[in-house]
TrEMBL record:
Domain of life: Bacteria
Name of the protein described by the UniProt record: Pyrophosphatase
Originating species: Dictyobacter aurantiacus
């Protein structure tokens, strides 16, 4: 599966979510949802690294939650880029991968 296929699937899931909860997916929503997911990722990381209460969860569960939160942030980035008309593959190639040539 390539990035476009992943982004298309994520878009479909996000549209269903928005319809189900009557959410207007505008530019503000995409940014705020990303911030929410980054916050959840941060909380999971703090628990995983021993810097926050584990709430009685075993390490395996905390690790699984951290993994899932990384995926959530990735998917929200895909949604934000798509909604903003950003060619993410091009931008990554220009900003990051171009440095491999030097």
């Amino acid at each position: 599966m390539d990035l476009d296929e992943i982004a298309e699937g994520v878009e479909q899931v996000s549209q269903r979510y928005a319809e189900r909860f009557n959410i207007e997916r505008d530019a503000t929503w995409f940014v705020l949802k990303l911030q929410e997911e980054v916050g959840e990722l941060t909380q999971s990381y703090l628990m995983l690294s021993g810097r926050a209460r584990t709430k009685g969860k075993p390490l395996e569960e905390i690790q699984a939650e951290f993994n899932a939160e990384v995926a959530d942030v990735f998917c929200q980035i895909l949604l934000l880029a798509r909604a903003s008309g950003i060619d993410l593959e091009k931008e990554v190639a220009d900003k990051w991968l171009s440095r491999l040539k030097s």
